[in-house]
Specification:
Three copies of one chain form a homotrimer. With 284 residues, chain A is α/β, with parallel strands linked by helices. Chain A has ten helices and twelve strands. Chains A, B, C: Keywords: Oxidoreductase.
C-alpha cells in the first residue's frame, strides 16, 4: 500500500521546499493543497480517514505547512477535532519550518550546554522559530529570556509558552539599544532568530559577554543577526563562543525533517509538534 | 506507459477522498484540478487527447468529482463535445460519490429482491444519491416512488430520470407527516438517502410496513434516516427487514469505485455514469 | 534520487499538455503550480534550490508554461535573478508550446533549404510561435520578413528579435490584401503561424510564388492558414511546394519536448530557451 502524504498549506501556493523534502523522505504520493483554512478543510480530512481501513491508516499522513504559524496551529486544532476513535492519521506541523529549525538549533546547543543550568537569550524571540526555540529550551529546563523590541509581544509569547510548558522559566526581555547590557548579562546561550537583514549585536558586543558559551544564528542571508557568524559555521569558534550559522544548523534540520516524515508512517495516531520533533532531532 | 488519471473537480480544492481511491486503484500519476468549469476546461481536455497517440490513449483517463452533481454533469457534457473521432479518453463521473454509492446500495437490495416485482421508496429522492438510486432501480424494472418534502422537486427528478430511462416507472411522492401511510403503502424496499441528521421514519413505523423486505440507509452520521439501522449493519435483521447501513453499503461502494477506475484504462472510449457503474458493481 | 520537475504556469490551471509530456519524458515527480507571478514565485524558487546539495541539484528542474509567452519570460527573468552561485537548477521555458513548435517547424524547413540563402516569410509573425520561428531562422542566417496586419507590431517583434540575435536580418512586413504580391516576392519559405481560423493565402496564390520551395502551416484546426495544406502533411507536395501541416511538424515537436526535459536533468545550470531547444530538435 502506497504511503500518501497530504500537505495542507495555509498559503495559496503550497511550499515547494516541503514538497521536495517529502519526496526525499520516501513518500510515495504527495497531495498538496494551498489556501487551506479551518472552514474548507473538513471534507479533505474525511477523505484522509474514510478511504482506508483503520489498520491501513498508518499509510496516510498529514503535513501542515505555510508561512503563518498561527494559521497552521488553527488547522491542527480543526484536524484533531475532526478525528474520532480509530479514524485518524498521523499529523506533522512545521509551518515556516519553525519546528524543525528550532529543534535542530536547540540540539546544536545541547552538545555544549547543560540546559538545567543554562541562561538563554532568544533574539527575535516572538517570531515562529524564536518562539519554538524558547519553548523547547524551557521544556528542557533552561531559563529563557524572550527578547523583542516590544515587551508586550514578548509577554504574549511567554504566556503562550507557559500554556504548553507550565513549568517554563521564561521571562520577557525588551531589546533596545539601551537595554543590551541587561539583556545579555549572565547568559550562556544566544539564539538569533530574527527577520532577515536585522543585526542584533556587533562582534565586539558578543565577545564582551564573558558567560557566553554558544551562539547560534539561523538567518542565512547577510547581514546575519550576530556579526561575525558565517552561515556555514558549524561549531566554529567566533567572538569567543562556539558558533553555528544557518547552514550549520541546516544539516540537522533537514535530517530531522526527513526522519519526522518517515516516523509519521509508523502509526496512525501521532501529532508531531515542537516537543516530538525535538525528540526526533536527538536520534537522527 | 504510465496510467495517468486527470481529476476535474468542480470544488476549489479537489476531493482528497477520490485522490486516495485513485492511488489505491493502481493509477500511476494523478493530476488533480480544482475549480474546473465548462469555461476553463477546454485546454485541459486538449492536453489529455493531444499528447499521446490514438493507440496509447487508453493510458489516459478523466475522473469528474466535486460536491455538486449538476456541475459535474455540465463538465461531462463539455468533455464529450470536445472529443472528436478517435481523439478521446475514457471518463468516469462520480460527483459527491453519487454513482458509486447508489450502485452499491441498489446492488445490496438486488441480493434479496426481484426488481421486476419491486415497489421501491426513495427517501431524500431528489438528492444526488437518491436520484441515482431511483434511476438505477427504474432501469432495472422496479416501480419507484421518489419522495421529497417538495412534490415539485420530486416531479423534476422523475422527469430527469425518464429523460435517461424512458421506460422508467417513477412517481413523485410528497413526504410529509400526514402522508407517511400512503407513501409506504405496499413497498418492498426503502432507501434513505437524505441529508445528515434527518430521521424519516421511526423504528415502529418501519416495523409496521408489512410488505417491506429490505431497508437501506446510506447516512453514516447519527441520527440516521431509518431509526434502528446502525451504520455497520450489513444484511442485518432490523425492524423486521433485511437492513444495510452506510458502512454495510460502503465496502461494495469502495470495491466498485476501484474497479471502475481500473476499467477506465482498458479502452479510450468509455463513459462511466450511473448505469455503467451499476454494471461494474455487479461483477466485483 | 528522484527527478523532480517543478512546473510554474502563468495560467490559473497548469497546462495538462505539459504535465502529460513531463511524465512521458521520465520525470519521477511533477509539482504543478498555477497562477504563478514574479511576485509570488520567490519562495517556490528557494524551495527548489535549498532542499538538495549543490551536487544533487541536477535532479531538480523547472519548467515554465502557460498561454502568455511574455508572462513566462518575466518568470524566467525573476528565476535567474533569484539563483546565485551554485544554488541553481536547470530551467526550460515553453509557454504556449512556442519554443518546441517553432524549433520543430524550422527543423522541418532545414531539411530542404540552405538558410544562408533563404528568404523567409512568417505569417502571424508577431504571435508566440511566429516570433520564435523568425528568431531561430534569423539566428541561422536566413533573411526573414515578419508579417502582421499591423506594421507597428511587426516592427516591435523585429526589434525584440534583434535584441536576442544582434546580427538578425529581419524586416517588418505589413500583410494586407493589397500587399500580398510584395510580401511573397522572391520568398523560398513560408511559415503560417497565425490564429486558428485565419486563411492567409489561397492555394492559387501559394502556387503563384515561383521561388517558393517550402510551406509550413502549424495550425491544426481548419481552415488552415495556407489553403490546401492538410494537418497531416509531412513533406508532401502541395501547390508546388514541399509542405508540412501541424501534425507533420508535431511529431518532431513532441520528440524535441521530451528530449529537452530529459536534458534538464543532466546538469543544474541550463536555460533552455528558443536557441537551445532548436539545437535539441536537431539531434532527436
Amino acid at each position: 500500500m502506497k504511503k500518501i502524504l497530504i500537505q495542507f498549506d495555509t498559503d495559496s501556493l503550497p511550499s515547494s521546499f516541503d514538497r521536495v523534502v517529502a519526496i526525499d523522505s520516501g513518500v510515495d504520493e504527495l497531495f498538496s493543497y494551498g489556501g487551506v483554512t479551518p472552514e474548507n478543510i473538513e471534507p479533505l480530512i474525511h477523505g484522509a480517514i474514510f478511504t482506508r481501513s483503520a489498520e491501513e491508516l498508518s499509510n496516510t499522513a498529514i503535513f501542515i505547512s505555510g508561512s503563518n504559524v498561527e494559521a497552521g496551529e488553527r488547522l491542527l486544532s480543526k484536524i484533531q477535532d475532526t478525528f474520532f476513535g480509530p479514524m485518524r492519521v498521523s499529523v506533522m506541523i512545521d509551518s515556516n519550518g519553525s519546528n524543525t529549525t528550532a529543534a535542530a538549533a536547540v540540539r546544536c546547543a545541547s552538545k555544549h550546554l547543560d540546559f538545567n543550568t543554562t541562561e538563554a537569550l532568544i533574539l527575535g524571540g516572538t517570531g515562529p522559530v524564536g518562539h519554538r526555540c524558547g519553548q523547547i529550551l524551557a521544556a528542557q529546563g533552561a531559563t529563557v529570556r524572550i527578547a523583542s523590541r516590544s515587551e508586550e509581544r514578548a509577554q504574549v509569547t511567554c504566556a503562550e509558552i507557559r500554556h504548553v510548558v507550565p513549568e517554563a522559566k521564561v521571562v520577557p526581555c525588551e531589546f533596545s539599544d539601551e537595554g543590551v547590557a541587561a539583556a545579555v548579562d549572565g547568559i550562556n546561550l544566544i539564539i538569533a532568530a530574527g527577520a532577515a537583514g536585522v543585526q542584533f549585536l556587533t562582534g565586539e558586543e558578543v565577545e564582551g559577554i564573558e558567560t557566553l558559551k554558544v551562539a547560534i544564528d539561523v538567518n542565512a542571508v547577510p547581514p546575519v543577526g550576530l556579526e561575525g557568524i558565517s552561515p556555514t559555521d558549524d561549531a566554529a569558534e567566533v567572538n569567543g563562543a562556539t558558533s553555528y550559522g544557518a547552514f550549520g544548523v541546516g544539516g540537522l534540520k533537514m535530517k530531522t525533517h526527513r526522519a519526522a516524515i518517515e516516523k509519521l508512517f509508523t502509526t496512525n495516531d501521532q501529532i508531531l509538534n515542537a516537543a516530538e520533533i525535538y525528540n526526533i532531532a536527538g536520534s537522527v
